[in-house]
């Protein structure tokens, strides 16, 4: 019911699927059809939901996207579909049957209606009924359909992976920013002219080698950390003015902050919400503690790892740990 919360209501009546965007009012839930409420990114708003992140530490932290929570009445769901990311389905209250289908891709026919993309002919090959505490992992591209058995609450832990096209575009941009625009492709000694008008395999190999040499010479690998920690949803904070300074004795990473880091010979490259900061290597222990979800003493962090502290504060990536006050 709040403006800042991203939510959807999916319903089915007489075989017709509908979707509404939030915010909602109380009357929206007084209905006779089969309906499901989905709340996106609830880990950014609820302390208990955010704590679920620590249970998937076997995957890189920068792969984590968010936790979506869905409430469904008996028989309801969002229809047969597939996602382009890894998802762990954790059953909360009630139970839900998950029907699993085949692998889908760009060639899979879809019904695009009312802002929903559903699989028209869904034939499940497996079925699982999840009770409270059960978890089902669904890989990217696998068709699935969850149907509530009575009132049901499911937590979907999503893990994103960047598109190869985005990685290639960022890498190319990174190299072009450093490359001298006057650099030209050179014909190496011994490169045959070939037959009249021909582009030979040797010419292609020479061009590929030139590109590879530029890559090896200029690539600093920072583009990867920038793209996996960047998020367009975080751009709004820049419009609301400078981030508020944490003032409590204990600090932790903000729930919406995306953090990753790479160890260099003399320092650490720390990636925060798409930006890069060089901090001393001595900050590694405190940085890892924060990434594990631990809280740190504000005075200890600000005095011993000042560069890290300043970068995190500048990017609005720290918040007071009010659970310990």
Descriptive report:
There is one protein chain. The chain is built from 8 helices and 18 strands. The strands form 5 sheets. The protein has a 7-stranded antiparallel β-sheet, with no helix packed on it. It folds into 3 domains: 7-159, Cupin (Jelly Rolls); 164-219, no CATH class; 226-324, no CATH class. It has helices at 47-50, 164-178, 201-218, 222-229, 236-239, 284-291, 298-304, 306-314, and strands at 7-13, 16-21, 34-39, 64-72, 86-91, 95-103, 111-113, 116-118, 126-130, 135-138, 142-149, 152-159, 250-253, 259-263, 267-272, 275-280, 296-297, 318-320. It is α+β, with helices and mostly antiparallel strands. It is flat.
Short description:
The protein is an alpha+beta fold. The chain has 8 helices and 18 strands. It has helices spanning 47-50, 164-178, 201-218, 222-229, 236-239, 284-291, 298-304, 306-314; strands at 7-13, 16-21, 34-39, 64-72, 86-91, 95-103, 111-113, 116-118, 126-130, 135-138, 142-149, 152-159, 250-253, 259-263, 267-272, 275-280, 296-297, 318-320.
